[in-house]
Amino acid sequence: MTTNRSIRRVPPWRGLMLVFALAGAALAGSGALAAAKASTADHAKFKELQQSFASGPEVTKACLICHTEAAKQVHSTKHWSWEFLNPATDQKLGKKNVINNFCISVPSNYPFCTSCHVGYGWKDANFDFTAEENVDCLVCHDTTGSYRKLPGLAGHPPYQDTEIPPGSGKFAKAVDLTKVAQKVGRTSRDTCGACHFFGGGGDGVKHGDMDSSLAAPDRELDVHMDATGLDFTCGTCHRTSSHDVPGSRYTPVARDTEGAHIPGREDDSLPATCPACHGQAPHKGGGHAAKLNDHTDVVACQTCHIPQIARGGVATKMSWDWSTAGQMGPDGKPMLKKDEAGRVIYDSKKGDFVLGENVAPEYRWFNGEVTYTLLGDKVDKSEGVTRINRLGGSATDGKSLIWPMKVFVGVQPYDPVNRTLVTPHTAGNDDTAYWKNFGWEKAIKTGMQVSGAAFSGQVDFVRTEMSWPITHMVAPKEKAVRCGECHMKGGRLEAVGGVYIPGRDANPLIDLFGWLMAGGALLGALVHGGLRIVRRNG
Amino acid sequence: MERIYIFKRFERFWHWSQALLIILMMVTGFEIHGTYTLLGYGDASALHTSAAWALIALWVFAIFWHFTTGEWRQYIPTTENLVAMLRYYMSGIFTHAPHPFRLTQLRKHNPLQRLAYLGVKLMINPLIWLSGLAYLYYNEINAVGFGLDLGVVALVHTIGAFLMLAFLVVHVYVITTGHTWSSHLKAMITGWEEIEDPQQGAKS
Asked: Closest to A518 (Cβ–Cβ): which among B42, B95, B162?
């Protein structure tokens, strides 16, 4: 094992005490953080916003009168393009291109998926990515909580009261654009969460470490976001400059070897990593704290400090079996099945789900390199499991740490002739959409046409796995994973190789000899002593 | 019956605190090793480390004491009476033969004891000290350019622990082989050892 720093260690005469001060320094500054939120501008007083707006793009035009560069900045981000070229692998990624094992893929389902796009009108491949007024300022900068984009409207909010879903009798109220525009402000947990809490088609579905419980979490759920404490927003860590939000899932920093970034000392950047604030020796004190610091070259902070995911009362999906979709209820109509907690575990449109709350993550070496199985990449069903994303990392590459993962298991359609994953057309009110017609061949044919990929017409299902590095829902220090949960046989890190873990690992031969030797000594003593007792009066 | 004063106050203090610390480290050490769960890994590890520092401090004092008092000479190995001692433990002790070694203040350990304690001091202790310090500081040691492997460090430390355990078992038994079953134990508590009356020994 190697390390690139050295930590001063005080001989731990006081070592019995658990000295563990991860958040101590941050706590002291919480008052100052809360005071810094008042803006110098009251947008309600701006003439440009004192009008009634007929559509989102009209609001954006008004915003751009003052914020002249904002749309251009947004245009250069992944939030806008849904496209990302990974320089390490040359893979073309981004929401537009990747296939996952949740709702599978975006193309052919644009009007529904793009309700989470920071733009207006992306209903098909002809969307104009250069139009500045197509940027949706409000979805990120709303402070009223009344702004909402609906699936099927291609990123627009409802401008009239809209029945959603159609025929349900439930109506979403038209958004008051003037009110929302006059009250714009900083991003918040609510604005980021409006999309990121609901990834995968519902609350908490995708990530496990992000769901609506983080809108106003208590300290136990997230020590930093604690609404009555530090009250971090997403942007406190994902400190954004020029609308470009740091902290990428495509090229994450798995091992930040830099110290804390102190403004004015090194530079003003703030990577969205733990060491960016806490440095490389986050546990203060000698003895036990120093021993904990010794772990930072092997174990990611998240591994100990996020003991479970989905801790806020919202379940996350652990698996999704598309192959059972399409079964109808006794009335011949699509049905839902719910578990005893009232959560959907079967949906005719989607298949079977397994849900989990308070789930202990799995652990893997991870160096930040992620390679996706993309459309066209060969899939071999005989391998048992197709990895949607493969994570690089090992104990010896010097760039990896042991990371917690949500490993999401899917069973999803694929083309057994061409041996590729497929991009079914699921959402839509047309003749081929799976969620309306329940026919895989038609849905996949349409979807693959939109994706520009070959489809043999045959459909089979393949087991897939997708790993999600876990980094949110950081628990308070007293709730961190206990030493013995990993330092044991059969513990959390049982499957992680390449590292000696005291308590888990031992040389069986040395143990055998050792116990034979000690046991032999004991036996000898007993026999010898026994003989002496027998011969005492002899 | 004759009594002689062989263990001075510091020596007894050193012996018993060492005994306590070593037993504590055995208990916590084998928990860290994964043999059983008692205190929980974190507490076991913290206690083990604190006890290690206490023991190191004690040893520093003890080494100083041994050299300033000249008591270190008690551990110089000798072959005189060695075979006789072995023979006594293997047969004489069962037939109430006289003890072949007569202890004095200047020779308080029999030749087998001398060898055993010397082995502890020159082999087992350094093995445990060095591997234990490497275990505690392997990050820092590697940071300055060594390529220590924690698995190897732990292996050496475990070997040391097993040797110490075997020594402890034999040691605890052998203290029952004095003039009476408890005379060695009493000596380490009070300092005074009862020794065999030479005439009486010759009679039996």
From this structure: B162
